[in-house]
Structure formats: structure tokens, C-alpha cells
Amino acid sequence: MASHKDLTDPADSLPTPLTQPGRDGLAALLDRPARALVALDFDGTLAPIVPDPEKARAHPDALPALVALAPKVAGVAVVTGRPADVAVRYGGFAGATGLEHLVVLGHYGAERWDAVSGKVTAPDPHPGVAAVRAELPGLLARSTQGTWIEDKGHAVAVHTRRAADPQGTFDALRGPLTDLATRNGLVVEPGRMVLELRPPGMDKGVALSEYVRELGAESVLYAGDDLGDLPAYAAVDALRSDGTPGLLVCSGSEEVTELAERADVVVDGPAGVVRLLRQIAAQAG
Which pTM was predicted? Predict the structure, then answer.
């Protein structure tokens, strides 16, 4: 079993966390992997960002890395804004041997898919989502071109990556979409060239904290890439303040810098996340 001293062994390539809480979190994970939770965002973390979200797929080495790691830890959770079943399909998780400890917390935790049962559990959609879904096409037609609506069932997202000026379109839409969301009892979650309208009270921090408690995890790693992952970062900070070691990992990009500024470890996109998972699996024995 790995110990804290392994973090400086030149024979391995595990990065050394930049902060003492991060170093403590990684050491705890390696010392007692069977009591650790590894939680990960999907898009931008396990899957490269692509212009069409429907074509997003997990990094080709992500599934083997998760299969190597999952049996050694208390749990692996994919925490995503996508519907749980979509993340399962795009990740190739269903039926994969070795992933019995995997859950997918979709719609920021409102939905849940368990690898053991292969089933999704979910509440009824918020009524404001249907109202927003009906109004959005007209609003976008009046205001800008080049946007794309993604219907997530429990939320609706407007993507601007295909627009001639993605950032300018994003900035122009933020106010009108916030007004639309507010009128219908929803909130707007900004991301990487996407504005998501969703029910309040759904965020990755709440989902992560609840699953840590359910699992009884004694340490936690969270990896993300976007603004929607900041609540999960805050949840890990709160857990660390309460004595549960944690490690914050950023899947780095040039589009979002806020997570990198708060992370204990920054890796090079999904390829770097996958590499880190494989290294942890090897160290965890």
C-alpha cells in the first residue's frame, strides 16, 4: 500500500499537490483507498469539449482508468449537469466489468444511475423548465444567431460555441436568459460557452456532500474544469475544514481559469485526468 513518502518517489509520476491540504488529501486517499471517494465531472474532465455536445464522448482511456481504479476505492461518482443516462452512454459505463462502485449523479444530483442496478432514479421535472423550453426559440430568434438549444429534460442549455462570436453572444444572452429563468423560478448556470437554465438547489456541491455522507467516505478527490464545478470545490473545502481530507483537481483549459487558481493539482485536460486516475490506481495497490 502506498504511503505519503511515495509522493516524492521519482519512479512514479504522480504530481505533488501545491497546497498542504491537497497533499494531505492525496496521502489519505493513497493510505486508505478503500475509504476514499473519487468524484469527477464529465464534460471537459472525462470527455474533451467539442463544438456539438451530442458528439461528446469520454476520453478513450477514461473507461480503462476507471475500471482499474474503481475496485480499489469506496466509490467513484461522475457528477454532471447532463442527464444521467446520457453520461452513461457517452462514457460507455453500462455493463463495464469492474465498475460496480460507480454512480452517475446527473442533473447536478437530481438523477442517479447506479452501475449495480443499471437503473436511473429521478424526480419529476420542475414546471419552469417546460415554460422556458417553450419560450427559448422565440427569444433566441429575436436576439442572436448561431446558438444551439440542448434539452436536458430537467434543464435547458443554450450553447454559443457555434456562433460567429461565441463569447460576445454568451455575454449578450446572459441578461435575457437570466430574466427568463427568474420569471419561471429557475436559475442560470454559466459554463464554457453555455448558459444552463435549471431549478435552484441543484448543484454539484450539494450532490457531492450528500454522496460523501451516504458512502461514509473518509477522503475525497474531486476533479472538474468549469464554473459549475466551483460548488463541488467549496464542498471539498468544507469537508476539509471538518477534518475529512480532500484533493481538488483541475482539468486545465484556456477557457476557464477560476478552478486552476483554487486547485491543488492542475492537469492537462481530460488526458491529464485519465493519466492521474491511472497513477492513483497503481499507487493504491
Answer: 0.80
